[in-house]
Amino acid sequence: MIKKGTLLFILIILAVIILTGCGSEASLLAVPDDQVVAAVADNSIQTNSESASTDEVVAVNNTVSPASGDNTQASVAEDLAENNPTHMDASDVVIDSAAVTTIELNGGTIAVEGEGVTVSTDQAVITAAGTYRLSGRLVDKQIVVDTVDEGMVQLILDGVDITNSSNAPIAIMEATEVAIILASDTENRVTDGSTYIFEDPESDEPNAAIYSTADLTIGGDGSLVVTGNYNDGITSKDGLVIRGGAITVNAVDDGIRGKDYLVVKDGQLVINAGGDGLVADNEEDAALGYIAIEGGVFTITAGGDAIQAQTDVAISGGQFTLTSGGGSTGQIAADDSAKGIKGAVSVAIDGGTFVIDAADDAIHSNSDLVINDGTFEMASGDDAIHADLTLTINSGDIRITQSYEGIESALITLNGGDIEVVASDDGINVAGGTDGSGMMAGPGRNGRPARGGAPNQDTFTYTGDSYLYLNGGTITVDAGGDGIDVNGAIEMTAGLVLVNGPTEQMNAALDYDAAFNISGGYLVMAGSAGMAQAPSGSSTQNSVLINLGGTLPGRTLVNIQDASGQSLLTFAPSKASQSILFSSPDLVSGDYTLYYGGDASGTTEAGLYTDSVYTPGTAYTTFTVSGVTTIIGGGAFR
To answer: DSSP labels for 487-522?
Structure first.
């Protein structure tokens, strides 16, 4: 992303000069005597033309506040503690077989054995709390629950096929609590029509094939197929708990909705929805409208969001295959949302396995997002992981195979995990103010791949300080735009950060606006040279930025070794590179040589060699580290 428009003319001239010498390995020459070789020691920043103290730099920009890196350490349990308790009770799906009323469905007639049911021409109305076993086929008639009793109503579906062309086949209009139990080894089907006829023409409810105004629980070991041709598949206007069963929902709008909450303990859920897949949508109570998932297997294909909560999404386990908006290459309207997982207040994930293909963000929060563990493979037409305010990753195996921007928030803390990011624009983006990163849909710009989504998907406003905290983990980035772009400050204390950055001169492997203080960890970045930056002089760990006199083809080895021949870095950037940034605790004061080409053996991951033996190619330059930041061949830093 271009943020330095006032330098545009100078940078264009610089790009022309650099590109003139670009091409092949053979075009790399020794560093000319008149190129900048800068060393930053203690509290001074030195170049050929000017000198400024760190205090002056920090006075102009914002200093990093390490303490605020300990943010948003929320877990699913902490998230749910802020919400109201549910009606969930394991006894809800335990059948009292001693007192069961049987309802036998015979196409156009209904036979009842027991008490608590009133049969009319087009309905069987359950008027009392109790347990009711339904079996058989029912056409254009309705099962209704309408009771003021305080007790539980249990509906045992024991091999039913209920259809109604003009209303909800199962309608729970009044009750304290209802449980639908799927009898073992049974297949059950509920199907509505595309048009409803209401007693009150002003009414628009029921609006789902299985509809409830009361707390609803679904469980058991059988299967249920729900087809919602009118609107939703399964809807509760109160709370909804799913405890088990093999449940398939096909709906023209939302698949499964719980107004106050949607809690899934277990089950196998297959949802095909024109709207959202799983939804909780209470807009009046800040403690409600949440989704909590403890386990289960989920295959959700949604035209809108696959999982969407008005407040919180809290996931502690499960297997998820989520597709939204036609997937990462899908196109959606500007006002539509097609995210994989979306929480308007927060998203907390403690574990699970996730495969997400989303036209919009793969995981999104309008406020805070934390990932404590889990395995993720994500492709997104916009951001893979996005939070408007704070985003924290503590652990997890995260693979972002396609995105416009990979990880984005106003404040990002990466404490651990194994994270791989592929982005056509910025890999990691810390954005303050109004972010315009989601402004383009359709064909990619500047030769980058096409993206899905819609204009203005990620326009959000943030007025606080913007920070990136790198405290651990292994982070690799392959970016078409900036590798790491921070509209604020960076603090790095630990971990491995590896960036294969852009080849485009108006972007850089590293782009920050305030300070970048590094005190620990292993940092390697390769990319274009036009806007290359190095960490700040206020850092306590040494860094070196080498701007090359030409372009190294992709996969060309670069090696940095000390005067004794000990290698500190052996790396093969995946793209053509004009600059190399390196920082390590092992980069101490002394003399070093940069080589390119040659051969290496040993373990390699994302182009970085460990436990390797390097056979030197061409010696590019020898340089001396005598301070915190050393810059060879120009470049920029703060």
So the answer is: SSEEEEEEEEEEEE--SSTTS-SEEESS-EEE-SSE
- Can you give the C-alpha Rg of the chain in angstroms? 30
3-state secondary structure of 39: strand
Question: Is the peptide bond preceding residue 455 cis, with omega within 30 degrees of 0?
Answer: no
Q: What is the rounded distance in angstroms from the CA atom of residue 597 to the CA atom of residue 546?
A: 16
Helix or strand (DSSP H, E) at 393: strand 390-393
β 522-527/577-583 pair status: antiparallel
375 vs 352: CA distance, rounded Å: 6
The answer to whether residues 413 and 435 touch, using CB atoms and an 8 Å cutoff, is: no
The CB density around residue 576, as the number of other CB atoms within 10 Å, is 17
Q: Is the pLDDT of residue 178 over 90?
A: yes
Label residue 634 by pLDDT band (50, 70, 90).
low
What is the C-alpha to C-alpha distance for residues 177 and 179, in angstroms, rounded to an integer? 7
Residue 162 pairs in a beta bridge with 138, 190
CB 305 within 8 A of CB 330: no
Phi-psi region of 34 (alpha: psi -120 to 50; beta: other; left: phi over 0): alpha
Q: Does the pLDDT value for residue 520 go beyond 60?
A: yes
- Please give the pLDDT value at position 85: 61
Instruction: Give the strand pairing for 590-596 and 629-632.
Output: unpaired
Distances (CA, A) of 232 to 144, 158, 235, 347: 18, 23, 7, 24
Q: Supply φ then ψ for residue 95, to 5 degrees.
A: -85, 130
- Partnered with residue 629 across adjacent β-strands are 40, 543
Provide the token pair at 280.
Answer: 């909780």
Residue 415: which region, alpha, beta or left (left: phi > 0; alpha: psi -120 to 50)? alpha
Q: What is the DSSP string of 441-452?
A: -BSPSTTPPPB-
Strand order across the beta sheet in which 558-562 lies? 599-605, 608-615, 567-571, 558-562, 590-596, 618-625
Distance CA 310, CA 290 (A): 6
**pTM for the whole structure:** 0.86
Residue 24 pLDDT: 37
Rounded Cα gap, residues 476 and 251, in angstroms: 40
As a whole number of angstroms, the distance between CA 220 and CA 151 comes to 20
Q: Which tens digit of pLDDT belongs to each residue from 13-61?
A: 333 333 333 333 334 434 433 333 333 333 222 222 222 222 322 232 2
- The residue type found at 135 is S
Q: To the nearest 5 percent, what fractions of the chain are helix, strand and coil?
A: 5, 50, 45
- Own/partner long-range contacts of 398-404 (Cβ < 8 Å, ≥24 apart): 398/371, 400/362, 400/376, 401/377, 402/328, 402/449, 403/328, 403/362, 403/378, 403/379, 404/380, 404/437, 404/438, 404/451, 404/453
DSSP 8-state assignment for residue 331: B
Amino acid occupying residue 473: G
Could you give the C-alpha distances from 502 to 97, 357, 633, in angstroms and in order?
A: 68, 24, 19
Q: The tokens of 66 are what?
A: 């390490």
